Sequence to fold (410 residues):
Amino acid sequence: MPTVTTRRVAITGMGAVSPFGVGAGALWQGLRQGRCAIGPLRHRDSERLRVKIAAQVPESFDPASGIDERTLPLLDRTSEFALHAAREAIAQCGLDFARDDLGLRTAVVVGTGVGGELTQDEQSRRLYAENSNRTHPFTIVRLMTNASASHISIAHGLRGPAYAVASACASANHAIIQAAQMIRYGLADVAITGGTEACLSYGALRAWESMRVLSDDTCRPFSANRRGLVLGEGAGIFVLESLEHARARGADILAELAGSGMSADASDIVMPSADGAASAMRQALADAGLAPEDVDYVNAHGTGTQANDATETRAIRLAFGAHADRLAVSSTKSMHGHALGASGALELVAAIGALRDGVVPPTANLDQVDPACDLDYVPNVARGMPVRAVLSNSFAFGGLNAVLALKRAP
Fold:
């Protein structure tokens, strides 16, 4: 068989919209300071809901800032987040996509769990509660799952492959892996990728209430008194390019996306499997050429549910063996909430920050030891320490696992 030459993948830009505000810097500073952005739910129907808390993008967020007035009416909130995050990431990377037809060799791959949920909810209200005979004429273009990827492509003249990835809470990591594979195998020179979600509609909140997995006080991953997850929203978008391409233009390389792993539990639609999660972590280590002992930090999926946290703990022990006791492990969902298809992207900002600054963000709100969760979860206060390599875990309903492996910038 012919030898396939692969290219190393560099991350050269990142942007975010999160419960800490606009900007990847605001997100990282909030996380390293251990600040919890979970607060009272802001919603027109909040009095009708049992859930009273969420991790929401601040009201100061201005979707119209920097977006063409003709484009705004076409956007669901999930696309607004993605466009703002993409603009920041692209500005940071310093690429000119009009030069040398780079736009032809630039892909856009964006993950989202539910897409234009607020548009869907709004138009359902219009039809069924207000008895309207018509929906808004832009309903379809707002709610379609690929809208965010398409708008980023249009806004920046990116004419390579552009599409969405939807795999519930693993969507962002799956999208990033797809984008990285295109870089590695020469299908694209640059990729804009990440995840976005704006899921706090009345219908979605009611549906999550019915599952009985939402916390009523805060998110306490790995704590014995954890009561469930807290929903969040936001977007994280990144610029990937081949390491050779980045070095040739003198780019500031934020980190190397060294490898990835993906697996399916093939067992249950909602209950996680330690074996499936461990398989994805082992694949990520092998793909990145890392031994377990090379990894210093794991950004855990860490939802704060009884099932996930104990299962993820077992999975980390299966994947890392004796080194599991020397790992720093934390869940930043304790601070930015569970943004579903965007979670992996928000957490990638944390992983990059840990590598660059030598600071592991904490697991906030962890106040009671759970014997079933017996790793070092960096409770409540960030830890300064050398960080050479990181795994970032995303596990989803449907038994879907996607893990990123990162190294310090070479």
The two ends are 31 Å apart (CA to CA). The chain has two domains: 9-248, 258-407. Residues 258-407 form a domain with the Peroxisomal Thiolase; Chain A, domain 1 fold (CATH 3.40.47.10). The longest strand covers residues 9-18.
